Amino acid sequence: MLAKRRLGKTELELTALGLGTWQFSAGKGVGGSYWAALPQEVVDHVVKAALDGGISWFDSAEIYGHGASEKGLSHALTAAGVVPGGVVVATKWWPILRFAGSIERTIDERLACLSPFGIDLHQVHLPVGLSPVEAEMDAMASLVKAKRVRAVGVSNFGARLLSRAHAALARHGVPLASNQVKYSLLDRRVESNGVLEKAKALGVSLIAYSPLEQGLLTGRFHESHEAVQAVSAARRLKTGYSPMKLARTKPVVDELKAIARAHGATPAQVALAWVVQFHGESVVAIPGASSENQAKSNAATLGLVLTPKELEALDQVSRPFR
Fold first, then answer.
1. Other C-beta atoms lying within 10 Å of the C-beta of residue 43
2. N or C: which end of the chain has fewer CB within 10 A?
3. Residues near 178 by Cβ (< 8 Å), separated by ≥ 6?
4. Is the pLDDT of residue 238 over 70?
């Protein structure tokens, strides 16, 4: 199993893979429209399977069902016998049509939804708030100083804004822990737009969301038209399971299958392993899971180590997606 990694220059240590919990939105709000509502019993089983597989951290957000994901996660962790401080918990503040003052005004609600668990990593979900990023980081730093959160991250920030956020927090003596970005073998833009380079230079970890590209890298959508039709219309629209896209991505999936056979693994596990191993310890990932089996499969990736040759082969076949 891969050793735990330090998140940025903070004291937080976590496994290379966490569990993303967007799918715990209970069908509520904009975030919930992408997923079928999961019964709490299923959520409990998913979280327990992740924990049993060695996963040590969980990522949620205010917008995921307007707190439903946070509440579902808290219930599941408690049901699994986890005590506060036993795992790393991350969540995000939703900035659309809000000023920086909302960060401190809404922290009580975030903590209430996650109770009895605290917030180890609090993140600005998008770089679109009504206040400058400096004001948002000032508010986040205040929460750290008040010991209401342990660390600060951002999400979907470009290289320039990442630098500004880092500098603003540094004035308070607080490190910027992470930038949560979309990253997978089928979306490698952070390698070419300066985000990965800037994060490495600043000592900021990247947290990869959608590391399986909404399931495309599992290979099942390339094999079954019925699988495509079974997902929600919103998810089909966002990801684009068109025949053209399936054809364009097939060489990557074929390479994943070949490497998976050599390891007795699945294409999804190989895809996740590549994301968290190709750049050393710079990138961690938060695949979601909607079933116990998916959570077990994702967690098993922690024991899969790809060879330099395999990492390079996947790099080469996926270069069109940089």
1. 23
2. C
3. 7, 8, 121, 123, 151, 153, 154, 204, 205, 206, 207
4. no
Q: What is the pLDDT of residue 241?
A: 65
pLDDT at 224: 46
Residue keyed to tokens 């979306």: 187
* 86/236 Cα distance (integer angstroms): 36
Which positions are catalytic? Answer: 64
The dihedral of CA 168, 172, 175, 178: what is its sign? negative
Average confidence score pLDDT of the chain: 93
Beta-ladder partners of 58: 19, 89
Residue pair 51/19 in contact (Cβ under 8 Å)? The answer is no
How far is CA 109 from each of CA 62, 66, 92, 102, rounded to the nearest angstrom?
9, 10, 12, 11
Please report which helix (H) or strand (E) contains residue 123, including its range.
strand 119-124
**201 CB contacts (<8 Å, ≥6 apart)?**
none
Structure tokens at 4: 């735990």
Bridge partners (DSSP) listed for residue 66: none
What DSSP assignment string belongs to 70-102?
A: HHHHHHHHHHTTPPTTSSEEEEEE--TT--THH
